[in-house]
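Reopening this one. Same input as before:
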Amino acid sequence: MSALSINFRFWSVVPAAALFLVAFLATGCEQSTESFREIRNAQATNPNAPSEQTADLINRLQRAKEMDLGQAHRADVSAVGWEDDMIQAGKADKAAKELSHGIEVSQSELDDALFVPPASLSGSERARLINQVQQAIRADQHQEDTVTASATMGGSRYPTRSMAVLENHKQMAEGVLKDLEVGEDVHWQTLNQATQAARPQD
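Same output, byte for byte:
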């Protein structure tokens, strides 16, 4: 075989080998790019995962729930106290689950869920609550008097619904006041309602 023939075959094979090498390198680059993308995606933060602030709230809610349940299982807990503790534990649990699933929880709901009722009322705390309930009762009565006077003097329609709201709240607050004065336990939700004056919407 002549040198010219060998030389011709060599140069005819070079383009094919070059094409193979380019294809191989391209495939390798594609695989490397895909692998990098997979690694980057695996390391990236899950967009559905709670933020640091939300995670902190969830932890606080879980701690509040644990405290609620701990108080509910005290040997000396009253029936009213047990019910309050279990209700609050349920609120904390619900709020934590909603946050962990990306569901928005209002600030008022969070404040309510994070509240852990005290195991008992001190004398000064009971006196403070009694004073607040008395103020709410006086506010209800003042609103009743004002509404009645306005309707009488102005000749306007008597606000039956507003008066009913005021009277019902005042009676409820008076019942709470009696319980507090004699040392009875009162549900915290009822206490909160009793310490705030009614807000009729007529």
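So the earlier flakiness isn't reproducible anymore. For the record, The helical segments are 3-43, 52-72, 79-100, 107-114, 123-154, 160-182, 188-194.
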